[in-house]
TrEMBL record:
Domain Fe/B12 periplasmic-binding residues, every copy: 39-306
Listed name of the protein: Fe/B12 periplasmic-binding domain-containing protein
UniProt cross-references to PROSITE patterns, sorted A to Z: FE_B12_PBP
GO biological process terms, semicolon-separated: cellular response to iron ion
């Protein structure tokens, strides 16, 4: 460890040596958290975005850069933070020197893995406590939002967000459960610039299809955190999806122009939808709290006769509550059409 890093260690140890309160993290570990808690780093995008929704003033760094054109849809406290990196995708990890420079009093990580164990060990040298989260299944979000609120010392704010999550799940899931199996729509989730990567039934990345009552046409063989299993166009044709949900704007711009895709039922019937992604994707990558709004959008897309959701009204409530942003009519149009947002305006 270099001299500069040791100096930062000394500063961090002094900064974290205030009073403390005991918390129990989402894996049952008891941890002493400095009090007052003012500087927190969260090591993966879904958990980082949730912490931002609860109190953006606590964050000391970001896991990913924020596109300039989306910043007006985010809390101002979030937009000037340094990018520290984080655990996401394949092989990504935080920049440890940049992380220590931010002098966090607490680090929040996804549930324990071999990688996070080494990360924990490094942070213990600096006297920085690490709390673990289990943020994954959308149905567990009410519990997980409250858990994050307890860790951050913001239980009242977390309760507001958890109540919205409970309301949304309580409105969508029972109606889906009452739908006959014969009415379930066949759905393909197209990822990548060629549309030929996907995630199968029961996976974390595609769970909104299952929750909204769709039949994911791909059963899937890949069961890892990253996903994106490659398949062939011939397989998609055999699947005969009635709806295609598209992750990548590049693929969406060319699917209707491609003679190779024109015989897919969803393309023939123009039931191909680009997933909204402002300021974060509503469906996946990262699978964040935006999926609470995404669930409503997917249900409406798949079953417009069963779900009569006023999406502009719902968007206004959601963005105001979670992101502290007030949407104009033009904002709503841009977001739902998944168009590029102008840099200024």
């Amino acid at each position: 460890m270099g001299r500069a890093l040791w100096c930062m260690m000394l500063v961090t140890l002094i900064a974290t040596g205030a009073g403390a309160r005991e918390i129990v993290d989402m894996t049952g570990r008891r941890i002493d958290v400095p009090e007052p808690l003012q500087r927190v780093y969260v090591a993966s995008p879904p958990e980082s975005y949730l912490a931002c929704a609860i109190d953006p003033s606590l964050l000391v760094g970001l896991t990913l850069p924020l596109p300039q054109r989306y910043r007006r849809y985010l809390p101002e406290a979030m937009t000037g933070l340094p990018v520290v990196g984080g655990f996401f995708g394949v092989g990504n990890a935080p920049n440890l020197e940049a992380l220590v420079k931010t002098r966090p009093q607490l680090v929040i990580c996804w549930q324990k893995t071999a990688v996070s164990e080494r990360f924990d060990k490094f942070l213990r040298q600096f006297g920085i406590p690490v709390a673990h989260m289990t943020l994954q299944r959308l149905q567990d979000y009410p519990r997980d939002i409250r858990g994050m609120g307890r860790i951050l010392g913001r239980p009242q704010r977390a309760e507001q967000l958890a109540a919205y999550a409970e309301k949304t799940l309580g409105e969508i899931l029972p109606r889906v459960a009452s739908m006959p199996a014969s009415e379930r729509v066949r759905v393909y989730y197209a990822e990548g610039a060629d549309g030929l990567s996907t995630d199968g039934r029961g996976t974390w990345h595609a769970e909104l299809i299952d929750l909204a009552g769709g039949l994911n046409v791909h059963k899937g063989e890949k069961d890892d955190l990253f996903g994106m299993e490659k398949i062939s166009l011939e397989q998609v044709l055999l699947y005969r999806p009635e709806v295609i949900l598209v992750h990548d704007p590049v693929f969406f711009r060319k699917i209707f122009l491609s003679p190779r895709w024109r015989n897919v039922p969803a393309v023939k019937n123009r039931r191909v939808y680009l997933i909204p992604r402002i300021p974060f994707n509503w469906f996946d990558r990262p699978p964040s709290f935006m999926r609470l709004l995404g669930l409503q959008w997917v249900a409406q897309v798949l079953y417009p006769r069963h779900f009569n959701i006023d999406m502009p009204r719902e968007m206004r409530e959601f963005y105001r509550l979670f992101l502290r942003v007030h949407l104009s009519d033009e904002d709503i149009r841009l977001i739902l059409e998944s168009r590029e947002v102008p840099e200024h305006g």
